[in-house]
């Protein structure tokens, strides 16, 4: 299975419409890959909070984690067409979504090779503590997996990477690989690569973590998209700027790693907290 991670340089001097068209062209150029992955909030920039509401898109009738409903968003339509024309599964990163309840969500979109919206995932862990995304956007509540012909993907987004229990839940739901779009800042880049490898090692799964380059809203981006195998070995890592990583994944590698070193079988659940 061949996967391509497109690390986008989110340049504030480039219009959002121009970037949509350019990224659509980059996706179409990946014909021959099975899976293409884009970063988090690449249309607006993950820290461009003032653009979230104005650029929010709707997924008319779509429910979290399902393919139901029609597409009603500029990015969604462009990415749907790009996936179909390239003949790839496309994790189109995430977009600001305005839900039917009027709440904004940080929502990832997964399109099948025929261009249909196969899955959506609303980010569960919102970054910012008492500001930014944490107060501007609602939280998702469902774990989402996407069963491709070769691998079952577990979906997570950026700050989710810091919460290992989410990934354990995805493993229990059958995930063999994690796809993690992000807009991770340069000042915490060491955490980005460390945590990506940790999630691969502890869950014995592939990690495909795709970030952004450039500087937007005054925040320098880490770049350094990374692909890690189930043993924790780095298959490929990008630099700081716009770049495309293409890696070959062996689905049998997951089962082989879990069989040779069956640590997941030794999990102990339901431990009691110490009495005080």
From TrEMBL:
Stored Pfam families: CN_hydrolase
UniProt keyword terms in alphabetical order: Hydrolase
Domain CN hydrolase positions: 1-251
Regions annotated as coiled coil: none
GO molecular function, a single term: hydrolase activity
Protein family (similarity comment): Belongs to the carbon-nitrogen hydrolase superfamily. NIT1/NIT2 family.
Protein's recorded name: Hydrolase
Species whose genome carries this gene: Streptomyces xanthochromogenes
